[in-house]
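your task:
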Amino acid sequence: NLKAIHILTFSNETLLLSNDEKLFASYNLSESNGSASIIQQNCVKLSKKPSCAAVYNNSILISDRVGDIYTTNLSLSNFSKISFLSHLAIITQMKINNKFIFSSDDNGKIRISNRLKPYLIESFCLNNPNIFISSVCILSDEILISGESNGIIKLWNYINGNMVNETQLPINDMSISNNNKSINNSNNSDNNNEND
């Protein structure tokens, strides 16, 4: 039986994925002359279902469903637990840059840890604990953006942990501008009009 893919992360020609069977695999992805190839490098079965993963240079971070984070190499050998990066919640996403490790969870928290010394917590971006962080994107050396389960997008200064702006993503009635045209989406398809 085919199993659903739950993690799909790509960085530096390395593709990571996992499925319902706790299989975690790394692939090499290459592109040339408008064509692409994908070659499986390594595959392991984890003891717990992973929730997310991130890759930086030759290191991979993997989190499981109980909030623990493990590090390994691209060959998926020598797994070691990083206890001081653990959350008391399901980790929903991880990002890594040259200075920090960003980890968000389903208790509305984004932790910013020092990459070279992960036991040093640089800051927290704290949200409503009843709203989980569904996605995180690093915009600059100071600003990150978070997507939440209630459809709100927030901008944070992750150096001091302060929220600097927020907006509600309009789902039911969205006005989209594309090539100088306005397209109105609504639940009633009979009323949809396209105006030049």
